[in-house]
Write a structure and sequence with these properties.
The protein is α/β, with parallel strands linked by helices. The chain has one domain. It is built from seven helices and nine strands. It has helices at 2-11, 16-19, 32-47, 55-65, 74-83, 95-107, 203-207, and strands at 112-118, 138-143, 157-161, 164-165, 172-178, 182-183, 192-197, 219-222, 225-228. The chain has a seven-stranded mixed beta sheet. Strands 4-6 form a two-stranded parallel ribbon. Helix 7 (203-207) links the parallel strand 7 (192-197) and strand 8 (219-222). The longest helix is centred in the N-terminal third of the chain and has 16 residues, at 32-47. The N and C termini lie far apart (62 Å).
């Protein structure tokens, strides 16, 4: 009963036309699965240290807080992503949103998931680490992502219908498609997989790494044209 009431507090006053893009209105309905997701997230941010904690340890805590895979479905995960903006002022560490969503998706029994991050001036634009450790899921991200979409992914497909910051870091496999513009390092430390860029990018962000070390593997395309097929030391 506490769970349902807590979820209802989050749902109350939701105006879909204000919260979502006008071309796709999704009605957020209170369900037991969505309430379980909300309760897990409430528990998650109570045990996470906001500063000095690695994404790895934060993700491990998210896995312990999400509900059992039998209790939720992709629709409820999508609806939860629409509610996340209500937590922005309470949770300043942007990776928390992305890591919790990643845990829900990776443990979910279905293969296809869609999540929404919003666009400026929505603060959900800063959601980081979406698609963390993705191994087989097909994930569509509607909106911009923060740092490291597809971080450590080893398989599956991630489609970002928006802009991205430093996507594909540590990839070992899979396909990452960015349909907007890219800012920051692209595929930092990539060892496999494919990154497809369909918007603007800076070539220096692809050929250079902060420590000057060479690329290790993987392929990077721009509008279908192969631009990097192995890591090349520059300078």
């Amino acid at each position: 009963m506490t769970t349902i009431m807590r979820a209802r507090d989050i749902f109350s006053g939701l105006n879909p036309e204000d919260e979502q893009a006008p071309d796709k209105i999704i009605e957020v309905r209170e369900t037991r699965g969505l309430a379980a997701i909300v309760e897990g997230f409430e528990r998650f941010f109570e045990i996470v240290t906001l500063f000095g904690e690695t994404n790895e340890s934060t993700y491990d805590k998210a896995l312990k807080c999400i509900p059992d895979r039998s209790r939720y479905n992709p629709v409820e995960v999508e609806q939860f992503s629409l509610l996340l903006e209500r937590y922005i002022n309470r949770i300043p560490k942007c990776e928390m949103h992305g890591l919790y969503l990643s845990a829900l998706i990776n443990r979910g029994k279905d293969r296809r998931f869609t999540v929404h991050t919003g666009r400026p001036p929505s603060l959900l634009v800063y959601t980081g680490s979406l698609g963390y450790y993705n191994a087989r899921k097909i994930i569509t991200i509607e909106g911009d992502t923060g740092y490291s979409a597809g971080h450590y992914m080893s398989g599956g497909v991630i489609i970002v219908n928006g802009n991205a910051k430093s996507p594909g870091s540590g990839m070992t496999g899979g396909k990452l498609i960015i349909n907007g513009d890219v800012e920051g390092d692209v595929g930092w430390g990539i060892r496999g997989g494919k990154i497809h860029l369909n918007g603007n990018y800076n070539i220096k962000d692809i050929n250079l790494r902060a420590d000057g070390s060479p690329y290790d593997g993987g392929k990077i395309y721009h509008k279908g044209k192969l631009i990097v097929k192995k890591r090349v030391r520059v300078g």
